[in-house]
Amino acid sequence: MPGVSRAYEINVQDHRLHYLSLSARHGSMRAAADYLNVAPSTISRQIKLLERALSIALVEPGSHKMVLTEAGTMLCDYYENRMAEHEELLTGLASLRNVRNQTIRIVAAEGLMAAPLLPAIAKISEKHPDASIELMSAEYNAAHRLILNDTAHFGLLLDSPEDARLRVHAASRQPFVALMPRDHPLASETAITPEMLAEHRLLTPLTSSRVFEIVQSVFSGRGLSLNIALKSSSMQIILKGVESGLGVAVLPSIFAAQGNKDEIVSRELVCDELRDISLLLVSRVGRKLEPGALDMRTALVRAIRKLPVL
């Protein structure tokens, strides 16, 4: 029967679907390979085998960034929805057995899981010792999708556009600041404008990131160009680059606390568009939460509301 054959074919390709989903979540096959500690060729080969088995392209060709075709998006949605349903089933069975085992997943767009939030997570881990907590990092669009399809219980997003499907539990204003070495020419200024930044080399996230999108919009709106010295998907690499003197980073103030304060200084930006930015804790509207996840939400809400605003 053709229908049975197709269902079986997809069922036995779970590891390949997993590779495809991870590559989409992390933005590239290489990033997924680094996450899994396997060779990039392994990821590429398995996805190609999946395309051959299904006789349809799943990845758009000719791009370093992972871009799914419509078929690839359908497959990722199918796989992630099925994984979420699988976990819901296991949680339900555990409840019937009066066992508290559960997994609490939090996705942070573009590395927004800041150190000040970790004590709140540790407190919930201590309160629910049988719970497993997963912290994921993904590009904005992938993080948004993981929240909507219930793969993640909660998400940390930056200044998210309004979406009726998302519920905002907490918000903390995190205006962008300029981060630079202490001996940088701009370090003597108390406040900096985009026009002043345009004269210096900048370190930025990748062009696909929400942070880059916001900064690029401000500069282009003022007729300014970004003079970029380095782009990276890792905020830690960007901060290390600032510390090494490669240039200036324009980032939400939450990242200022993660830099080496002996080497890096933070300066206020005179720019309304870059000051009215918030870190949001969100979940899907109607998402059912187990006791541990409910406690996690409460703890994160409190922690986010206590975050300092520079």
Would you mind describing this structure in some detail?
By secondary structure, this protein is an alpha/beta fold. It folds into 3 domains: 2-73, Orthogonal Bundle (Arc Repressor Mutant, subunit A), CATH 1.10.10.10; 100-173 and 278-305, Periplasmic binding protein-like II (D-Maltodextrin-Binding Protein, domain 2); 176-275, Periplasmic binding protein-like II (D-Maltodextrin-Binding Protein, domain 2, 3-Layer(aba) Sandwich). It has helices at 2-11, 14-26, 29-36, 40-54, 70-96, 118-127, 140-148, 194-197, 210-221, 235-243, 272-275, 291-305; strands at residues 102-109, 131-138, 154-158, 166-173, 176-181, 191-192, 202-204, 228-231, 248-252, 264-269, 278-284. Strand 7, helix 9 and strand 8 (228-231) form a beta-alpha-beta unit. Helix 2 packs across helix 3 (29-36), helix 3 (29-36) packs across helix 4 and helix 6 (118-127) packs antiparallel against helix 12. The longest helix has 27 residues, at 70-96. The model is unreliable at 1-9 (pLDDT under 50).
